[in-house]
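Progress narrative, work stream C.
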Amino acid sequence: MDERLSRILEKQHYHIVGSHSGVKLCHWLGEKLLRGRSCYKETFYGIRSHRCLQMSPAVNNCTQSCLFCWRYQGLSETGLDVEDDPESILEGAIEGQRRLVTGYKGDPRTTPEMWAEASEPNMVAISLAGEPTLYGQLGGFIDACNKRGMTTFLVTNGTEPEALERLDPLPTQLYVTLAAPNEEVYRRLCVPLVKDGWQRLIRTLELLPDLNTRTVIRHTLVDGWNIGWEKEYARLIETADPMFVEPKGYVFVGYSRERMRNSNMPAQETVRAFSDNLAKETGYEVLAEQGSSRVVLLGKDKRAMRIGDD
């Protein structure tokens, strides 16, 4: 990793792991430890917020420069020249998490029991920054997580369908971000760094029904950019046939503030209206929502929501 980038990320409270991976505490981990407030993943799926490790094995490598992305994009690369060992990445990520949560130990709002649990994460959100599927040993990393009994959520922008086809084992839950209803909006909002990004995303959607894992389509909703095309989104959802759909509002944070405006952040009422319209178009039902995260969950079976219950 470029030394300048490493310094920038460390100032933003990342823990750098090896040559291309990183860990950063999620806002909701702190909220759970200090105030007992949980994120939508706990509300929807039963994941305990304070035991979730947020990381990426490709922290500076991506095939898109999305305008709504909060990460630093000044030195982005579209591939990995050298790849670290999966086991060493997981070990380094867990050690990084332990170092980052140290500061909560002495806070009277945090119980010793919850702090100890936060130091032993049992869930890995492979979603922090970059495009994780660019890491060629991603299957080995997920396997290492499985051996520790850790749940894995993988978030991808869908531009690497070949990586998903050969991914073994698959994560506990696979997210594909679908932030545009058509190629024109995709090019303007997601700014692909590969010439056939939209076509590759469509191939990923076509692949999803055959993947033997929990699948989710994530709509990152940006007011003034990609809201109002529910019919077009519905056709794409029909292709992907996911278990769940998550319309989630863009949040005006990080480096996205250099590209977006506060007015691009939709209110929960807007996210819910979009979700209600999308439910009518797709036959999915609104199963849950969490206003603090500006997110709604659509699905066909409420009983399948929580991990381990389906």
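Work stream C, second folded protein:
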Amino acid sequence: MVFLNRIYTRTGDDGSTALGSGGRRKKYDLRIAAYGTLDELNATIGIARLHSAGEPALDAALARIQNDLFDLGADLTTPGKGRGPGGARLTVTETQVTWLEAEIDRFNAELAPLRSFVLPGGSAAAAYLHLARTVCRRAERLIAELKDKPDESVTPEVLKYVNRLSDFLFVASRYSNGKGERDVLWVPGQNR
């Protein structure tokens, strides 16, 4: 368990922040941007959950995802084979990715057939889940860029999980729109 008794440390006043392995990086470093975007994603999902309380299965899945996002952040804060406090290194597992795939399949099985691209909107929960999906895609782009840097490392499961998560968030947004019945659909060239 993590204990945070003191919230401010003043150690970041120079524009740097600590990694889980103890090293320091500039606050604009790509690794910091990647896990900072996961934090933004988590907050966005938190807002979506305020509007998904009437869907207990969806809310439970989103709660688990929020916890998993902290696992992803912990994984990213410990580059390479670095160890965290106490010598342990928290990594995302294939089991977490597999669970997410099963959730996509479970919720998608209940959806109305998709007839066009879906515009963000409909219910408040759906709109926030679409927003979460776009933040997730941004996190994925940052993590992919980080992975491709020769002096950096990213565990493969982190990128897999984030890729599946954006798919889950799309399915979840449709589920929140009356299982797809109230989706707002794109009409190509409607306003020409």
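The helical segments are 30-51, 56-76, 94-108, 124-148, 156-176. No further action is required on this item.
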